[in-house]
Amino acid sequence: MLAVSKPFSTRSPPAMLSVGEDVEADALSKRGWTVSAIARHLGRDRKTVRSYLSGERVPGVRRPGRPDALADYRAYVVARFDDDPHLWASALFDEVVGLGYSASYVSFARQVRLAGLRPHCECCSGVKGRETIEIDHPAGEEIQWDWFERRKAPWERRRMCCSARCRIRAAPAVCWLSRWTRLTSSRPWTQ
Q1: How many domains, in total, are found in the chain?
Q2: CATH number of the domain that 59 lies in?
């Protein structure tokens, strides 16, 4: 029997088998292949292949990495959400930390979201799933202009004016203002 091995890779393979790999490992096992030969063929660790063949693990399902840190505080979180469904997660996190919760806020918020502990509120759910009004924008009917003012634009640094005195002493805004006031009023402003 000739076993074809996969090319060598520096990346380690994922720790779980896909459904296809599990079916292939099961078929090879029924043909009489050893666990080591199946592991070499799939490019996986022997212990991983053995746990799937014995039925300890299910394909496509990851093992939990660590115990749920929120499990001890789940009843408290549910009771607090029953009292106030609009309670902010950050305020609730501060309360739970005072009780001894040791994980981070990001982990707390993720666990609350995945467990579905926050009750549904129609006012807070946004427009997802509701009817909305579509506004028709035919081509050529409307134009939208967006702009912003740059505070330190390269062309705002120094501008040359027509007079030598402005070129040396005046800022561009003062120079333009003095020109405009000379043209529009009888009394000139400061130069």
Answers
A1: 3
A2: 1.10.10
